[in-house]
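Exercise 7. Given the encoded structure of a 178-residue chain, write a plausible sequence.
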């Protein structure tokens, strides 16, 4: 998959999750095809400001890990990622209009402020779900659904690996499992 089509796929995922990044997150969003693996799914994404560096950052929760992305013109790209079992705690604190998120990873606390109140709460909830059940999510990922298998068959047919007859035969077998 080309980087451009992967970027579009990521934008589509964000749209399905009802996440609308601001203009300020465009640099980090453009880096996601280089950071995420091809089959890694975004669970939620928030943007804010790193309390220490004062840089605008994007915090991404995927089905595998938690990723901090900071891309600044003068400083280049900084990516930190942590598996959910390394996240000791995540909490948010709200003020009048915005919220802050504190993530305790590997004995270090990363503080992000300027996050929307609703987005901070939802992000922390989704990350906590992965923190509490990492093995369950890993098992779900390892077993492809029938829909996943049908999509794979379609790709194999499109690329010429399967003939029309082979495709129909395999599709029929999968549909019988439903």
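Solution.
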């Amino acid at each position: 998959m080309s980087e451009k089509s992967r970027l579009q796929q990521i934008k589509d995922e964000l749209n399905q999750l009802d996440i609308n990044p601001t203009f300020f997150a465009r640099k980090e969003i453009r880096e996601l095809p280089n950071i995420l693996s091809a089959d890694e799914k975004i669970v939620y994404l928030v943007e804010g400001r790193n309390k220490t560096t004062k840089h605008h950052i994007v915090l991404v929760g995927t089905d595998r890990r938690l990723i901090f992305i900071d891309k600044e013109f003068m400083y280049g790209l900084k990516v930190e990622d942590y598996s959910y079992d390394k996240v000791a705690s995540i909490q948010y604190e709200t003020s009048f209009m915005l919220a802050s998120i504190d993530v305790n990873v590997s004995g270090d606390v990363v503080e992000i402020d300027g996050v929307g109140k609703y987005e901070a709460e939802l992000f922390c909830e989704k990350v906590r779900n992965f923190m509490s059940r990492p093995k369950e999510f890993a098992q779900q990922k390892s077993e492809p659904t029938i829909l996943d298998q049908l999509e794979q068959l379609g790709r194999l047919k499109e690329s010429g690996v399967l003939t029309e007859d082979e495709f129909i035969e395999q599709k029929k077998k999968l549909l019988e499992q439903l």
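Remark. Residues 7 and 29 are 8 Å apart (CA to CA). Students should compare their own answers with the one above.
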